[in-house]
Amino acid sequence: MTLPELYAAVGGSYEQAQKVMRMDKLIDKHIRKFPNNPVYGLLSSAGESMDASGLFEHGHALKGVCANLGLVELSKAADVITEEFRPGNARKMSDDEVREQLRKIGELYHRAIEGIREYEKE
Questions:
Q1: Closest Cα partner for 113 from 59, 79, 62?
Q2: Which residues, in sequence order, are CB contacts of 24 under 8 Å at separation 6+?
Q3: In CATH, what number is assigned to the domain containing residue 85?
Q4: Residue 57 CA neighbour count, 13 Å, CB half
Q5: pLDDT by residue (tens digit) across 71-85?
Q6: Secondary structure percentages of the chain, helix, strand, coil, to 5
Q7: 47 is in which domain, residue-wise?
């Protein structure tokens, strides 16, 4: 599997990753590190307790990491949580809607991890 094939499989943008990192060597290095990044687990934990500060902080971190890596669908999904819990913003979503958004983030995250694991095999 090539990097462009990986990005196509996980709903990412290889072109965006190229704009940020400029070299396939760097994209490869950082995409391989992504599964070990603890931010998704921290976001999930914050979601279990509806910790507004944690949801913002970890949602924002996940959004940024994914944007830099070109994982655009996952970045956009994390942005929804980030904006919902941004300090000073009024909440618009119910707790159930937040949980549904976190479920969606989880699906996208696991899709990305599975794709990266396949990429690493080759």
A1: 62
A2: 3, 18
A3: 1.20.120.160
A4: 11
A5: 999 999 999 999 999
A6: 80, 0, 20
A7: 3-121
